[in-house]
Design a protein that fits this description.
By secondary structure, the chain is an alpha/beta fold. The chain has two domains: 2-130, Rossmann fold (3-Layer(aba) Sandwich), CATH 3.40.50; 135-313 and 354-379, Dihydrodipicolinate Reductase, domain 2 (2-Layer Sandwich), CATH 3.30.360.10. Helix content is 30%, strand content 26%. It has ten helices and 17 strands. It has helices at residues 13-23, 49-54, 65-69, 86-95, 110-122, 138-148, 180-183, 188-202, 325-342, 355-374; strands at 2-9, 33-41, 60-62, 76-79, 99-102, 128-130, 155-164, 209-215, 220-222, 228-230, 236-244, 250-258, 266-274, 277-282, 288-293, 303-306, 378-379. The strands form three sheets. It has a nine-stranded mixed β-sheet. A six-stranded parallel β-sheet has the order 3-2-1-4-5-6, sandwiched between helices. Helix 5 links the parallel strand 5 and strand 6 (128-130). Helix 4 runs parallel beside helix 5 (110-122). It is globular and about 65 Å long.
């Protein structure tokens, strides 16, 4: 089995999620490539302690990402740092010849994303992808199979979103995602939007224009020092887009990204409605997918299917057992390494977000900012 030696830059939650996935790589049964985490980097040395305690393969700990990129034993890097650092660190990693999995949104704004895209063009030998796990849930994979079988017919409407509760409490102290200089003006779109865009973009549904309604719901939060700090970024975003199917027929595509979503913890959802069939799913019922197949002149019954561990990459877990978030993380990393090793994804919907898809999200979010400011529909 081929081994790809990884460095992790940014050892917070998602860095540790990758570390955990690498530690249970033996759970995958049909892969011929594996990760080995050999180096970790964080500006806060305390953040690397988890890796020191749990990853015996780690041979380099540093607070300087340049030192990690200079390590000849590192083949690829996972970079999970605040948005304002994306362009600097991603471009440096690409220039160093390190294959890259980067966190969304792949740049704090459109200009930063264009810098990253230019670096990718200058180094075509470097494999680059963007993180998003939502497409790897079994229910979403089933919806992908229906799409590829043309079971929907002409698309009538699609809605995709990510509804989060992390900022429901107005007394929650402010963090970097509410600060323009660190998170960027996109707010919830930059932080959550790629998850909602992954499936539509992979299906080829490109937004032609957008009318956006963006909301700042909590104006200020405790600053942790006894005072209050302004919340500068958008809490919630609803984007109504015009898209087209493969036959050029237009339909409404709605993208929602909420950080203040009553009744939700961390809910992905996807709804596809067509002239021959429809499907809908929410991670609130993570292992259930609803499917409707029309019979001419007949009723329109929703069929509820329980999904098991029906993953793109097979695992030790039997198909009758249920899947969760950590399983989707493992699948995403299997997809990254499979495509790195073989030059193509296992299947169309079993691949990580491409740089081109990330760049499209930037054009969409930038147009959404203009739409909100000018109260009009803006071309993407």
């Amino acid at each position: 089995m081929k081994t790809v030696r990884f460095g992790i830059i940014g050892c917070g939650l998602m860095g540790r999620e990758f570390g955990s996935a690498a530690l249970r790589w033996c759970h995958l049964t049909d892969v011929d490539v594996k990760p080995e985490i050999v180096a970790v980097c964080d500006a806060n040395p305390a953040m690397t302690a988890w890796f020191k305690a749990n990853c015996p393969t780690v041979r380099q700990e540093t607070s300087d990402y340049r030192a990690l990129l200079a390590n000849a034993d590192v083949d690829a890097v996972y970079v999970a740092v605040p948005h304002n650092l994306h362009a600097e660190v991603y471009c440096a990693a690409i220039a160093a010849g390190k294959h890259l999995m980067g966190e969304k949104p792949f740049g704090i704004d459109l200009a930063a994303n264009e810098r990253i895209m230019a670096a990718i063009r200058q180094h075509p030998e470097v494999f680059v992808r963007c993180s998003s796990e939502s497409i790897f849930f079994p229910a979403v994979q089933r919806i992908a199979q229906l799409f590829e079988a043309d079971a929907f017919g002409r698309i009538i409407q699609v809605e995709s979103g990510f509804l989060h509760c992390s900022d429901m409490d107005p007394g929650k102290p402010i963090n970097w995602k509410r600060m323009m200089r660190l998170n960027g003006e996109y707010g919830s779109m930059g932080d959550l939007g790629m998850h909602a865009c992954h499936f539509p973009f992979r299906a080829g549904w490109r937004p032609a224009n957008v009318r956006a309604v963006l909301s700042k719901i909590v104006a200020q939060r405790p600053d942790g020092k006894g005072g209050m700090a302004p919340c500068e970024t958008w809490d919630n975003a609803t984007l109504l887009c015009s898209a087209a199917d493969s036959g050029g027929q237009e339909f409404p595509l709605t993208i929602k990204t909420f950080r203040i979503a009553p009744g939700h913890k961390n809910s992905w959802y996807l709804e596809v409605y067509g002239t021959r069939g429809s499907a809908r799913w929410s991670s609130k019922q993570i292992n259930t997918v609803e499917i409707m197949q029309y019979q001419p002149g007949g009723e329109q019954p929703w069929q509820v299917l329980d999904m098991g561990h029906e993953m793109a990459f097979k695992t030790l877990t039997g198909v009758n057992f249920e899947a969760g978030f950590s399983d989707s993380i493992l699948q995403m990393w299997a997809a990254f390494l499979h495509e790195l090793a073989h030059g193509a994804p296992k299947r169309r919907f079993a691949g990580c977000v491409t740089p081109e898809e990330a760049a499209l999200s930037h054009r969409l979010f930038t147009a959404a900012l203009a739409s909100q400011k000018e109260a009009r529909t803006v071309e993407v």
